[in-house]
User: Which sequence fits this backbone?
């Protein structure tokens, strides 16, 4: 049976890898897309995602949980808006 600690570490590892993947995705996205989306600059998001991914992968406890929140904000708020702008969907 899977212990709660092992399950938490497994989930944090998955989110940490997603953070590193998100950093790569943000790194290859055009700079002006972040400006058009009225978000922080591209390299700020890359740095946030790399640090958050490392915090999740290294098991830093509370800092890892904060990193999970930043990774979630990128994937569920920032990235969809940037994708809509890059595709030309400007609607509400």
Assistant:
């Amino acid at each position: 049976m899977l212990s709660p600690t092992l399950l938490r570490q497994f989930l944090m590892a998955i989110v940490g890898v997603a953070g590193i993947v998100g950093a790569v995705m943000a790194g290859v996205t055009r700079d002006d897309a972040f400006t058009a989306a009225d978000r922080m600059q591209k390299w700020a998001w890359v740095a946030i995602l790399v640090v958050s991914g490392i915090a999740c992968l290294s098991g830093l406890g509370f800092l890892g949980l904060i990193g999970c929140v930043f990774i979630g904000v990128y994937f569920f708020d920032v990235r969809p808006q940037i994708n809509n702008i890059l595709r030309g969907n400007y609607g509400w």
Remarks:
- The mean pLDDT is 93.
